[in-house]
Design a protein that fits this description.
4 copies of one chain form a homotetramer. Helices cover 25% and strands 23% of the residues of chain A. By secondary structure, chain A is an alpha/beta fold. In chain A, α4 packs across α5 (186-197), α4 crosses α11 (325-337) and α7 (231-238) runs parallel beside α8.
Chain lengths: 379, 379, 379, 379
């Protein structure tokens, strides 16, 4: 089959690789019809992880089931499914309480597995024609028929929509509250969108890319351009000097200031100042346990200089980590089906798999207009 | 009246000061019969805050009501009451949702007020014969009659018991879980005790003072002496290598290693390593927004070098800040009254007010055997 | 002052009564500029309660503060305020945990007090020129300046909006869920509206008055006319035969079938059948502890024949009772101020106080088009 | 194999039946070493359900794995396991959110499946030498080695301990609260025990069998003999006339008064009177959707005459239904392993399988001293 293969830093190639296939009786095989490039793919692309050359990327996948293992009971050939990027067994101590992002059995020695991802198990990604899905009864979200016509909405259920939503859940965003989101990339836009869906009264988003801020503004979110104003001051000014009720971190450890310098603590400390005493912060931007290629001494070893005194003095609560997609994907799917959510508004490019290498290049350079790329592998 | 007055770093004196009195129609006046020295008093005692000389310390107070303001409706002369260390109005946006530690009206410009405390408003402390209690209907916990005979238990409801309990609430300790508490001072002991009360299956506590570890062991808590073993390894060994389900930070920014060197991030990073993926951490040890007298560059400005990559990778949730005493004091009082909690087990010394200056000296030096001092001002 | 006075069954008169005035130092006096007639006023109007003749009705009140008691600290003359229909002290065991609908001190011997309401204390209602507001710092919601121009939205914060919202909170309505609301009166419309605000994917409402169903349909809610179809079957058909995720009861004990016969268990048993196993139901329709004038033997003594076997078999959870207005009014106010909620859409009539008696007559007969009446007492 | 077979009302026989065996690749086969008789078995025994003659009873099972299906990944031959009485797939919409008592796939057309139980699917019970366990990776709780020596504690994890615990979870029992439990059968005793474990300050239990009340008293629970006093008055007297904070229903639809007459609403209405305004009630006693053999007209059709007016007036919240064993069994197992819970204290008889028919007879007659029977099938 044709697949996008990681060859090394900033090198992704289209190649022929052996077909994905059923390996366990609980697997199914999916013909991938939509697969996104994710911001976190860029960490691997840029060579800042220990991703092995030769692996297939892609953890935001949707497609049609073409073969089922002998022990699969709920999923049938012909079902259209969207696959949570976390692969989980459904049976371990973490999975059984909904903590599927920390599955204990599928990536022994670590908590959590994923498709085509550094340090998250041997599972190949879906930027390819076929994808093997382990523990299919547990991992497949069966889609309504209409999903075929509307794949760009439903494919967002694999990661980016539940990830943005998770930020708002960790921050416990309630109807009538104010929320500030740092980062207007796809995840940040989904966090702001989720805040709107949850009935927030006031949603603010901080970034400096005009196209992204414009997308946010279209849904009633207040854009704050941090290349022009202090985002903390802007938020305080709009919240009677108190700060927003809740905050979402959607940037991660490669946060950089408007002049392009990386500060892994920048958005975190801005959030601590931007959120009011008693508030909550959801952190879904990725932070790595070490970052040897960083130039910052603390960052190299996975540390960040946090304004802990201010955080504690305000009595803030902070939730972190990868989303548990399965906690949210069914309800978010209902919203799409009911026409009440159309997360495809972030899609800037829909391209054949063959254009993947080029797409990575543009997306990695944060080029104006390259918000979100959906690849279409299936012929 | 006689009172303990802060005169400057490491100088506390017994002095005659003007009697406390009713200032607002919603005040009551309390004859203080029991008032504790708190570990956080030591930050002021040591001169590491901007506490003003001439002020009366003491925020853990219990006594008898001797006069009531004209607008007071529920509290009567002769009532025995315990006063939450947080003073709160009961009416602001924070108080009305139970966030009394962040009252917006009693210390304008800051969130939260307290008796006899740096930066927490003009309210005098209770290490004195009389105490003025603002918003008395809201702030007084009326005690059962038996409390008079048993003041050392009930006075713990002012701060240390609800503070320890708050750590377990922020960490959402559930029956059957494992918990690790860093710090076996009075607050840490109360966090461990609260974990036991909540039905934890396994409670571990880390410290190096033998008398404190012994107190913990008596209630079925596993002591870990960090001057002899790595506390992280000890916890991992006792939890199948996974880490405890939940963690409590009860030390704060002056955490020091067994050799006496301060590291404001030490217990936090140990907790991140000691708690399993998906876990929660409650931080009730005090962290200040700046600490000019620290020798550490980050600490000076209130920052700590946190293992944020590890924290995020494990998907931990962290709650912080001062307890909201009123959320817990009524239920904890019920436990004392029913004979199911006797927090006075931490009391090492019960002394007249006059011995206060001496008591501060011993307590400040973390002398073996000086766990908790109750002063008895009333004659 | 001029006031609407309850004289006996189906007799409400405009009369001159002594001016309301400050009675306690914690009171304020409000010039009432908007006051609603509530569906629950009709129980009193119809003589099915033990309301005393001579009392002033009206518990949904908004106006301007014209005098403040000496112990009032936050509220000033000239403030515009909306008053929660529950009057609460802010200091008792129930108020301090947000259960203001069950205040233990303002109506001794009962839990809960209200303005102008049978069995809820001696407090006069606001269908008058002036209103005495006890414990004003706690009970007044201070409104933004713009509220004066937009009183029909803000007056809904006194009761009907938080009551509808409470149904969705008791049912824990989550984004992406399906909800069925029984009753499209003002409260039912607000429950449906709250479900929409909370991001429900599918909201259904059951009633038979066309104008009310039409109002629901305008906001994207699916109307079900129970004079034409079985509402249970309709809901099951729209939810794959499983039932809605959540349900709201917004009718109460005088529920009647399309032919006009009362069945106090009708909507409850319909809900049990309409909600899926594991679901939750919020019941905010009023049920009285006895109803001597009912013709039904069980109903007379406040009992209802509930399908308890079905309820239990499905593992349903049911929350009941009056809303705690203060839990929600601040956040719902934010939504109005931000232009994201306009609950005035239910207002059918805005009338001078003098038209009150006539308005009661029309509203009581459930006349087509009389959805919600706002009276304007102040000259 | 030898098994206890239901032959018809009040007729249970030991018989030879075909060996249980692996039927699906996700099954395991367990050699049953401990299996309890449950109070709910008596509904079947007495012929008040539509249980089919010829079926094997027994849904509280523990034993050793002797064979595993080909798709089983976590469970091995030789593992000691306790089986939740609810059988669940782990993959459906309900299971994935922890609502395993309402599994949608294992008993099509109903929510929920169980071993050897009327209307809960074709699964045979464990009162036999061998038991087939479907979806074994999900359904088996792997026990610590020590469990073999201590089976009477661990077998309680199959049903009765998590069921009692569920009552306290539905009622959200908090440390320091007061709780009243109706029914001191095995489930009621476990609800009281769970309340103690959760740190309740005051636990009361209502029954009339002296041996059961004595067991309760031994763990510090206050016994109330409803053949001697009004239980409602007793509870009110012990709670300042307010009622208990929380209540647990552990009797079910065959509740009978001290004179032996059945009233399916008796314990429910007593609870409504015994619990204070704002309280919560957990109902785990069984209620059937119909009860044709009842002599009460409402009860026949599964209805109960509930004091709904009083319930609503107090703003009570009620949770109902079968426990989701998997939500609790792992944490309760930890408590047993740590020596902090010994639920075997309810065991009155440990008997070979052959004595099962006789044991049913005694247990069904509520004979003094027959609290809980553990059968030991394996040779």
């Amino acid at each position: 089959m044709r697949a996008l293969v990681y060859e090394g830093p900033r090198s992704i190639q289209i190649k022929n690789v052996p077909d994905a296939k059923i390996e366990q009786p609980t697997d199914v095989l999916v013909r991938v019809t939509a697969t996104n490039i994710c911001g976190s793919d860029l960490h691997m692309y840029e060579g800042r992880t220990d991703m092995e050359p030769g692996r297939v990327l892609g953890h935001e996948n949707l497609g049609e089931v073409v073969e089922v293992g002998k022990a699969v009971q709920q999923i049938k050939v012909g079902d259209w499914v969207c696959l949570p990027f976390n692969i989980s067994c459904g049976c371990c101590r973490n999975c059984e309480v909904g903590q599927t992002s920390a599955c204990l059995t599928l990536n022994p020695g670590h908590a959590g597995a994923a498709y085509g991802y550094a340090d998250m198990g041997p599972y190949e990604g879906g930027q390819a024609e076929l994808l093997r899905v382990p523990h299919a009864d547990f991992n497949c979200l069966k889609l309504p028929r209409a999903a075929q016509e509307n794949q760009n909405d439903y494919v967002m259920l694999a990661d980016v929509f539940p990830t943005g939503y998770h930020a708002t859940e960790l921050a416990n965003v309630q109807p009538g509250e104010s929320v500030v989101v740092y980062g207007a990339g796809p995840v940040g836009l989904m966090a702001a969108y989720s805040s709107v869906i949850r009935g927030a009264a006031q949603v603010m988003i901080v970034d400096r890319l005009r196209d992204r801020l414009a997308l946010a503004e279209k849904m009633g979110v207040i854009p704050i351009d941090d290349s022009k104003v202090s985002p903390v001051e802007a938020v305080l000014n709009m919240t009677d000097g108190q700060g927003a009720d809740k905050g979402c971190e959607c940037v991660g450890y490669h946060a950089h200031d408007p002049r392009g310098r990386e500060h892994n603590n920048m958005t975190l400390n801005n959030l601590i100042q931007s959120v009011r005493a008693t508030g909550m912060i959801g952190v879904v931007g990725v932070y790595a346990p070490q970052d040897p290629k960083s130039t910052n001494v603390l960052a190299k070893q996975g540390q960040a200089a946090i304004d802990w005194g201010a955080l504690w003095g305000k009595g803030l609560r902070v939730g972190t980590g990868q989303t548990n997609v399965k906690n949210y994907n069914r309800r978010l799917c209902n919203l799409i089906e009911a026409g009440k959510a159309t997360p495809s508004f972030i899609v800037s490019h829909e391209l054949p798999l063959e254009d993947g290498p080029e797409a990575y290049k543009h997306f990695d350079s944060r080029e104006e207009g390259w918000t979100k790329v959906v690849l279409k592998p299936a012929r």
